[in-house]
Write a structure and sequence with these properties.
Radius of gyration: 24 Å
Number of helices: 18
Mean pLDDT: 97
Structural class: alpha/beta
CATH architecture of the largest domain: 3-Layer(aba) Sandwich
Bound molecules: nicotinamide-adenine-dinucleotide, uridine-5'-diphosphate-xylopyranose
Pathway: Nucleotide-sugar biosynthesis; UDP-alpha-D-glucuronate biosynthesis; UDP-alpha-D-glucuronate from UDP-alpha-D-glucose: step 1/1
Family: Belongs to the UDP-glucose/GDP-mannose dehydrogenase family.
GO biological process, one term: UDP-glucuronate biosynthetic process
CATH class of the largest domain: Alpha Beta
Distance between the termini: 57 Å
Strand order of the largest sheet: 3-2-1-4-5-6
GO molecular function: NAD binding; UDP-glucose 6-dehydrogenase activity
Low-confidence stretches: none
CATH topology of the largest domain: Rossmann fold
Shape: globular
Number of strands: 14
Function: Catalyzes the conversion of UDP-glucose into UDP-glucuronate, one of the precursors of teichuronic acid.
Helix content: 40-55%
Strand content: 5-15%
CATH superfamily of the largest domain: NAD(P)-binding Rossmann-like Domain
């Protein structure tokens, strides 16, 4: 089957970059990305390509090349569904905030809405692809809904989870470790649908990196991959606390352990805690699924990864307060970095939000600088926690667009995102403009301790 028209529902951090790369690599396929969020679509269509709503290195160049040629962004969801022979569902699947499974299960209401709309609008056979991260066996529910209209239209459902990491999305999409496609391998129609998707990716991904599996393995592999990655971060963060008590250095331990080829060096960087829209949500979901099958030990095992991560964020903030003579009330604290990692403007579940909230509860005055995150986003992240009134957040937190301004007159600085530019700051000048003793807390192991201590900083780093 030759695919001519692709529709992607959801123009977010996954839908946008993924479809941009597909459009670039398959110039003969028309790719339309749709979203109900009008403002988001407007930004994707902004004549100034620097204003697209997702910041990723290299993305604006691809959008510039493909947009208007074979890449389109639109709010006309129905038209795009109707025209497409292949539909990616890439909508958000956050943790439920209400009802059964509140705080654990994935909220599938947007997924279900998509399925109902596809069922309603479709007049010709379609391949429907789960791009969103979903609980294992969601494809069965999708199939039920899609087949319920009884109008003779046939749907093939595939699972094609996305493994890109934010900040390196373009590189990850161009050069993936693997592409995973789950489908109905037992039927000819299923295999045909899988081949159609394999052929799209084979335009640029070597065939041996494209794995085909049954749907359930594909769905579960995605949750498992994120759980394994997050587990490595929590493991090294657990060791970082022990390092701080014993005089071992977590970077040296990570290097020594990671050089074992069975362990490998990646994802062993101690930090103030992992953030991002995926790790916590996907592990909670895995825990919820395990509990729902009564697999208590399995659930508890994975839940510990989250418990450790919450502890790491809290202990970093608590250590700041303790170090500063047990009070930060009315003290000025500069937070450098608000994004959950460098090279993205995404702040979902960022450790910075929780550290700031802790310090605000201690009545600190906070100044924030992040090169890519807007003041509006920072306030909205704090407001969302509901720890104090929106006004109180605006009174206690000032967002600035110059790191020097954030640090001027501060009692302490906390580095919470590993933006490269923080290494290059004139740290002597920063020090000169701070109150003394000048406290510097590095939540990312970004800065060299020796040079900072030489300048005169009271310097603390995770795991050091
Ligand atoms: P996102 O919130 O950035 O984007 C989702 C978009 O879907 C939003 O713009 C929303 O308006 C839109 N949407 C929701 N319901 C819709 C509907 N019925 N019709 C049209 N549009 C609708 O989310 P994201 O980060 O792109 O994540 C999407 C999925 O991909 C999630 O399941 C996530 O777990 C998974 N995922 C995310 C990442 C990542 O790094 N962000 C990586 C891999 C997988
Ligand atoms: C993750 C997965 O890596 C990706 O495959 C999946 O598709 C989506 O979820 P993402 O959350 O975008 O990607 O970024 P990632 O690089 O995994 O970082 C997640 C968090 O862990 C960040 O806050 C990062 O700073 C932190 N981290 C990562 C560490 O603290 N130490 C590490 O060694 C690695």
């Amino acid at each position: 089957m030759k695919i001519k028209n692709i529709c992607c529902i959801g123009a977010g951090y996954v839908g946008g970059p993924t479809m941009a790369v597909i459009a670039q690599k398959c110039p003969k396929v028309k790719v339309t990305v749709v979203d109900i969020n009008e403002q988001r679509i407007q930004l994707w269509n902004d004549p100034d390509v620097n204003n697209i709503p997702v910041y990723e290195p290299g993305l604006s160049e691809i959008v510039e090349e493909a947009r208007g040629r074979n890449l389109f962004f639109s709010t006309d969801v129905e038209k795009a569904i109707d025209e497409a022979d292949m539909i990616f569902i890439s909508v958000n699947t956050p943790t439920k905030t209400y009802g059964i499974g509140k705080g654990m299960a994935a909220d599938l209401k947007w997924i279900e809405l998509c399925a109902r709309q596809i069922a309603e609008v479709s007049k010709s056979d379609k391949i429907v692809i789960e791009k969103s991260t979903l609980p294992v066996r969601t494809a069965a529910a999708l199939k039920d809904i899609l087949d319920s209209t009884g109008n003779g239209v046939k749907f093939q459902i595939l699972s094609n989870p996305e493994f890109l990491a934010e900040g390196t999305a373009v590189e990850d999409l161009r050069n993936p470790d693997r592409v995973l496609i789950g489908g109905d391998i037992d039927s000819e129609e299923g295999r045909e649908a899988m081949d159609a998707l394999v052929n799209i990716y084979a335009s640029w991904v070597p065939k041996e990196k494209i794995l085909t599996t049954n749907v359930w393995s594909s769905e579960l592999s995605k949750l498992t991959a994120n759980a394994f990655l997050a587990q490595r971060v929590s493991s090294i963060n657990a060791i970082s606390e022990l390092c701080e008590k014993t005089g071992a250095d977590v970077n040296e331990v990570a290097k020594a352990v990671g050089m074992d080829s069975r362990v490998g060096p990646k994802f062993l960087k101690a930090s103030v805690g992992f953030g991002g829209s995926c790790f916590q949500k996907d592990i909670l979901n895995l825990v919820y699924i395990a509990r729902s099958f009564n697999l208590q030990e399995v659930a508890d095992y994975w839940e510990q990864v989250i418990i450790m991560n919450d502890h790491q964020k809290r202990r970093f903030a608590a250590n700041m307060v303790r170090t500063m003579y047990n009070t930060v009330a009315d003290k000025k604290i500069a937070i450098l970095g608000w994004a959950f990692k460098k090279d993205t403007n995404d702040t979902r579940e960022s450790a910075a939000i929780y550290v700031a909230d802790y310090l605000l509860n201690e009545q600190a005055e906070i100044l924030v600088y992040d090169p890519k995150v807007t003041a509006e986003q920072i306030y909205s992240d704090l407001d969302y926690l509901g720890s104090r009134s929106n006004d109180a957040n605006r009174q206690a937190v000032t967002v600035v667009n110059d790191p020097m301004q954030a640090c001027k007159g501060a009692h302490a600085i906390a580095v919470l995102t590993e933006w490269d530019e923080f290494r290059q700051l004139d740290w002597q000048e920063v020090y000169d403009n701070m109150l003394k003793p000048a406290f510097l807390f590095d939540g990312r192991r970004l800065l060299r301790p020796d040079t900072k201590r030489e300048i005169g900083f009271e310097f603390y780093a995770i795991g050091n």
